[in-house]
Design brief:
The protein folds into four domains: 120 residues, Topoisomerase II, domain 5 (Alpha-Beta Complex); 80 residues, Gyrase A, domain 2, CATH 3.30.1360.40; 150 residues, Orthogonal Bundle (Topoisomerase, domain 3); 312 residues, Neuraminidase. The protein contains 22 helices and 40 strands. The protein has a four-stranded mixed sheet. A four-stranded antiparallel sheet has the order 10-11-13-12, with helices on one face. Strands 20-18-19-23 form a four-stranded antiparallel sheet. A hairpin with a 6-residue loop joins β4 and β5. The N terminus and C terminus are likely disordered. The chain is of the alpha+beta class. Helices cover 31% and strands 23% of the residues.
Length: 867
């Protein structure tokens, strides 16, 4: 029964309140997040400190650990902080204390450490029982006037004492030393800056509140890291100062120096901010081991107390600049620093630009100085009251002494003194040298009566102060207090004087603690191009008739050709042969023109390096052409510059001249080079210099020679102009730019007949005509297949529609006049016809051709034309 009554008893206390779990989670998590944001991870915009740093400095200040005091154990400092202000782990406090003493993390140190406080290599600091610390003089500046009611104090975590909510710092520490922190859902990453620059910008903003972010950037050039380094470009800095967010690229300082006999070394003297030097060296060693950087023989650290020095020894044949660029690209010798200028403003996290950050500091400083002046004014007025009372006592000493002697006790004496009508006020004020206006003000203020505080001060006064010398001192002190009160009232009543005082104090700090910039800012520098990582050397590029492309080092080419008969340069199929061959630098560009009028661009270093004996890679897949496209021309370009043109010709007789600069930027998917009509196709493309001559041959055996000046420049997406007038069913079969050494015109027809004719027989004509006969396209000869400029030493390949190939030397082909039929060059089966005539770019000495010790010609700009 008792158990039943107990169970039926109503519950004690407040009844439970039903709560939606989603609402409770949301509220609790937001409370937690704001506690982390405001109370731990994000700095205050006014003093630039997180709570733990503020508590460390305040605890050291209260312990008297100023820059002039002796060092004390960090264990004691950490214990004091934990005991009174920071109810968290000791490791968190000690880590924060250590950072304030690390010269590679803080631009201007706030803690002077003694002992092992870690290193830039990531070595941890010694345990706090071994290290000692005290404040720096700059840290004392941040706490100056803190006992003058300049900032609000709040209860500590257990209400046993109070702590400052912010420090009355005299300089914008948020920008000067920066801050890094990760909160809940947000983070801050503010880089350090140069003290002189920041103070200069702050002063300018005080003088002219209308200044913009861009105006202030003339003072604050950019971040100034304690480890120095180079800042590449200004766009990220501008973005960060305008919006509070941006990204800057920091590069270490490295120089290339001679090292040993015919060798070089890269000497690194500065590394980017917050980069671990030892870890960077480990990464370099990994890159060497994985052969991602092949030019380094050894990497070692020679840093000492004199400064940083990392030596990267290079191999004898290494390109030092290429290796350095690879270090920038692949290691932390160059990093990206994301700026997030997030700070606490009035209890809320805000992302601020440069001007807003400085403006909030100026407002904080104005509030601090105003409160300090009011505090000092109250102190001065209180002191003046006491001195004034003592002065009255000294002036009317007989009356005062008689009153005290005749009183029964001190309390009675104090009351009687307060009732005395002392007349010495005017005399005392005059003795202090004050003007009549102050005498009148003093009379009005005191009405010839002593206050309780004055009476008590007189009773506590020593008899020694009744001497004449002491009276003079009292008068002088009174005058100084009056001057101080006048000055403070003027400052409080005049905004300009207030700001002048703030400026004066900051100028003193800049003069005493400012130093030169450590981080240099370079003008806009783009990302390192992959080309910067490729050593520049000459390569032999070959492309076969069936469309296989490769490259090989020129040194290998020369070595295999030297000394007479060599080996075949490429393992091509029996029906294939090298169609294009040229020498170009790895940094040169190659333009691939297709029969559909598009152009694709590649760099020589992108062409597969497969050696001379390899077949190569299919050009269609390498360039990325569409299945219905074929390469019509390959044009190497050593330099895109003004004055050079690309001359093209189509099957329908259109020619076009386009500025080479229009092809400087080619998309991976290609761009339009020539507008091609339905049924037409691009046949040829060559680079000219504006003064060359063009030779066009047609299917009906016609040819025309004209100067390129007759073709005006046009844009890429155009068809061009008529180069030759074609009869019905006629078509262009080739276009050639005249060049020195090519003395004959070779013409070949479908039925295997052809001939050579001297170039002088082809007179210069105007563009757009029907031209003159180059060969009789008779029933015996068949239509013309090719018209080409050749020299006596050239070799040719004739290809038939049945896959037959014949190789011949040009000098074995007979020379005839222009208007002739020629002779048989190739024996064909019935119904077989010649479909292509291609020059052989590479000799095959194994088949008995003459050796050629000289390399093929390099892709240089056109030379002067010859007729």
């Amino acid at each position: 029964m008792a158990e039943e009554n107990q169970a039926a008893a109503p519950p004690t206390g407040n009844p439970p309140v039903p709560v939606n779990i989603e609402d409770e989670l949301r509220t609790s998590y937001l409370d937690y997040a704001m506690s982390v944001i405001v109370g731990r991870a994000i700095p205050d915009v006014r003093d630039g400190l997180k709570p733990v740093h503020r508590r460390i400095l305040y605890a050291m200040f209260r312990e008297g650990l100023t820059h002039a005091s002796r060092y004390t154990k960090c264990a004691g400092i950490v214990g004091e902080v934990l005991k009174k202000y920071h109810p968290h782990g000791d490791s968190a406090v000690y880590d924060a204390l250590v950072r304030l003493a690390q010269s590679w993390n803080l631009r201007y140190l706030l803690v002077d450490g003694q002992g092992n406080f870690g290193s830039v290599d990531g070595d941890p600091a010694a345990a706090y029982r071994y290290t000692e610390a005290r404040m720096t003089s700059l840290a004392e500046v941040m706490l100056a006037d803190i006992d003058k009611d300049t900032v609000d104090f709040i209860p500590n975590y257990d209400d046993s004492t109070t702590e400052p909510s912010v420090l009355p710092t005299r300089f914008p520490n948020l920008l000067v030393n920066g801050s890094t922190g990760i909160a809940v859902g947000m983070a801050t990453n503010i880089p350090p800056h140069n003290l002189r620059e920041v103070i200069d910008a702050t002063i300018r903003l005080i003088r002219d509140p209308e200044l913009t972010n861009d105006d202030l950037m003339t003072s604050v050039q950019g971040p100034d890291f304690p480890t120095g380094g180079l800042l590449l470009g200004r766009s990220g800095i501008v973005s960060a100062y305008r919006t509070g967010r941006g990204s800057v690229t920091i590069r270490g300082v490295a120089a290339i120096e001679p090292y040993g006999k015919e060798r070089e070394a890269i000497i690194i003297t500065e590394i980017p901010y917050q980069v671990n030097k030892a870890r960077m060296l480990e990464h370099i060693a990994e890159l060497m081991r994985d052969k991602r950087i092949e030019g380094i023989s050894e990497a070692r650290d020679e840093s000492d107390r004199e400064g940083m020095r990392v030596v990267i020894e290079l191999k004898r044949d290494a390109n030092s600049q290429v290796v350095l660029n690879q270090l920038y690209e692949l290691t932390d010798l160059q990093i990206s620093f994301g700026i997030i200028n997030l700070s606490i403003v009035s209890g809320r996290p805000l992302t601020l630009g440069l001007r807003d950050t400085l403006q909030y500091f100026v407002e904080h400083r104005r509030d601090v100085v105003t409160r300090r002046c009011r505090f000092e004014l109250a102190e001065a007025e209180s002191s003046r009251e006491i001195v004034e009372g003592l002065g009255l006592a000294v002036t009317d000493v007989d009356v005062v002494v008689q009153t005290i002697r005749s009183s029964r006790d001190a309390e009675v004496a104090k009351k009687r003194l307060m009732e005395l009508p002392l007349a010495g006020l005017e005399a005392f004020v005059k003795r202090a040298g004050r003007p009549d206006a102050e005498i009148a003000e003093a009379k009005k203020r005191k009405d010839y009566r002593l206050s309780e505080r004055q009476a008590k001060a007189i009773l506590d006064m020593r008899l020694a102060r009744l001497t004449g010398l002491e009276a003079e001192k009292l008068a002088k002190e009174y005058g100084e207090l009056c001057d101080t009160i006048t000055r403070l009232l003027s400052i409080l009543g005049d905004e300009k004087l207030m700001m002048d005082l703030i400026v004066q104090e900051m100028e003193e700090i800049s003069k005493k603690y400012g130093d030169d910039r450590r981080t240099k800012i370079l003008d806009e520098v783009g990302d390192i191009d992959i080309e910067d990582l490729i050593a520049e050397e000459d390569m032999v590029v070959t492309c076969s008739h069936l469309g296989y492309i490769k490259r090989s080092a020129l040194s290998i080419y020369r070595a295999q050709r030297r000394g007479g008969r060599g080996k075949r340069g490429a393992e091509t199929r029996t029906e294939d042969f090298v169609r294009w061959l040229f020498v170009a630098s790895t940094h040169d560009a190659v333009l691939f023109f297709t029969d559909r009028g598009k152009v694709y661009g590649k760099k020589v270093y992108e062409i597969p390096d497969l050696g001379r004996t390899a077949r190569g890679k299919a050009i269609v897949s390498f360039v990325g052409m569409k299945p219905d496209e074929k390469v019509a021309a390959i044009v190497p370009v050593s330099e895109f510059r003004e004055g050079l043109n690309v001359m093209t010709a189509t099957k329908s007789g259109y020619v076009k001249k386009t500025d080479l600069m229009e092809f400087a930027e080619v998309r991976p998917s290609g761009i339009i080079a020539v507008k091609i009509d339905e049924g037409d196709q691009l046949l040829a493309a060559e680079i000219t210099d504006g003064s060359r001559e063009i030779l066009i041959g047609t299917r009906d055996g016609q040819s025309i020679r004209f100067p390129e000046e007759q073709v005006r420049k046009m844009g890429r997406a155009t068809r061009g102009v008529h180069g030759v007038e074609l009869r019905e069913a006629d078509a262009v079969v080739s276009m050639t730019v005249l060049e020195p050494g090519k003395t004959h015109v070779l013409t070949v027809c479908e039925h295997g007949y052809g001939k050579r004719s001297e170039i002088e027989e082809y007179r210069q004509q105007n563009r757009g005509g029907i031209g003159i006969i180059t060969i009789q396209a008779s029933e015996r000869n068949g239509p013309c297949v090719a018209v080409r400029l050749v020299g006596d030493d050239d070799h040719l390949m004739l290809v038939t529609d049945r896959g037959q190939i014949i190789r011949t030397k040009v000098k074995q082909i007979s020379s005839f006049g222009r208007n002739t039929q020629g002779v048989r060059i190739m024996q064909l089966d019935e119904g077989e016809r010649v479909v292509a005539v291609e020059p052989i770019a590479e000799r095959d000495e194994e088949n008995g051709d003459e050796p050629d010790e000289s390399p093929p010609p390099k892709s240089d700009p056109p030379s002067e034309p010859t007729a």
